[in-house]
Design brief:
Elements: H1 2-16, E1 20-21, E2 26-30, E3 35-44, E4 49-57, E5 69-76, E6 83-88, H2 89-108, E7 115-119, H3 123-136, E8 140-144, H4 148-162, E9 165-168, H5 172-176, E10 181-184, E11 203-206, H6 219-224, E12 229-231, H7 234-240, H8 242-250, E13 258-261, H9 262-267, E14 280-283, H10 288-305
Parallel strand pairs: 7-8, 7-10, 8-9, 10-11, 11-14, 12-13, 12-14
Antiparallel strand pairs: 1-3, 2-3, 3-4, 4-5, 5-6
Helix pairs in contact: 1-2, 1-10, 2-3, 2-10
């Protein structure tokens, strides 16, 4: 996770500096079965990292305890187009998404933030906890999930894996009140907590929703963060981030309320938080530059460790 945070942060900075190309992803809706397939290419020029990721998202799979997200990543040589590596992309997606939550928290949360509330006890929620442990040092976690047994399992496993204190909230309000950092990592299409319960000074990482008509945070939350909203990509957010598009459409917020993209914010040392009492919001829909940065780092580590299998196409 430490290497993932470093790599993805450098990827975002490259994007902010104009040294990366990360087009808006192509989305194919499989409406017959309630799923979607996404195609995500990206090229980080100064890292010579070129990837194409294909990912399927099927939220209904959780009803049968299957994976809601499946992905494959191809890392290419930008000089020749030759395939350098093929990677299982679900784990890579979870790691780079968790790393992104860690990066946003590092730059946007209050100094001394410690109490972290996680909505969603899936793989993204787990990876985000690992990243927050890396960034904050000794956080205390509270987890909420609509499936209580899943939250209980998360608490037991994450507390053991991270040597951290993890408790279970019985209702959303219990997770929100007193939180320094909130992470939403669910498949919900509707807000998962009431923004009126968010306390001053809270930083929120909204990581799950990625369609124009779905959101994890409500309008009151977004309104409280006006002028202190950061996104991974403006282009992607304006196409897919229902968390922002819905309040924008209603007139509750204005496009100028989006402070910056995270890469540009870091590159130019801009501060979204101006007061310890500010509520700050990072909205991520996921962009392929994250995958390019993480895949290139994984490839480098694997080659150095002799991990992997050479195959011929």
């Amino acid at each position: 996770m430490r290497e993932a945070i470093r790599a993805v942060e450098e990827g975002f900075i490259s994007l902010g500096a104009g040294r990366a190309v990360s087009p808006k992803r192509l989305v194919l809706q499989i409406s017959d079965f309630g799923g979607s397939v996404l195609c995500m290419p990206a090229y980080i020029t100064d890292k010579e990292a070129l990837v194409v990721k294909s990912v399927s998202v099927y939220p209904k799979n959780q009803e049968t305890k299957g994976q809601t997200l499946n992905a494959i990543v191809a890392l290419l040589d930008p000089r020749s187009g030759n395939v350098l590596a093929v990677m299982e992309g679900s784990s890579l997606t979870a790691i780079r998404t968790g790393a992104t939550a860690g990066i946003a928290t590092k730059y946007m949360a209050n100094v001394g933030a410690r109490r972290v509330s996680v909505f969603g006890a899936g793989v993204i929620g787990r990876a985000s906890a690992e990243a927050l442990k890396e960034v904050l040092g000794d956080p205390i976690f509270v987890v909420y999930d609509v499936v209580g047994a899943r939250a209980e399992r998360y608490a037991k496993e994450v507390s053991r894996q991270l040597d951290a204190t993890v408790s279970v909230a019985s209702q959303p309000r219990d997770a929100v009140v007193g939180a320094d950092v909130i992470i939403t990592a669910t498949t919900s299409s509707a807000p998962v907590f009431d923004g009126m319960h968010v306390e001053s000074g809270t930083h929120i990482n909204a990581m799950g929703a990625h369609t124009p008509d779905s959101r994890e945070v409500d309008t009151s939350t977004v309104m409280r963060a006006r002028g202190r909203i950061v996104v991974d990509s403006r282009e992607a957010a304006m196409a897919e981030a229902g968390d922002l598009l819905i309040p924008l459409k209603s007139g509750a917020i204005h496009p100028m309320d989006i402070f910056d993209e995270i890469g540009n914010m870091i590159l130019k040392d801009r501060k979204a938080r101006r007061s310890p009492k500010d509520v700050t919001l990072f909205k991520s829909v996921g962009v392929a530059v994250q995958d390019a940065a993480a895949a290139a780092a994984a490839y480098r580590i694997a080659r150095a460790a002799g991990i992997g299998r050479e195959i011929q196409f």
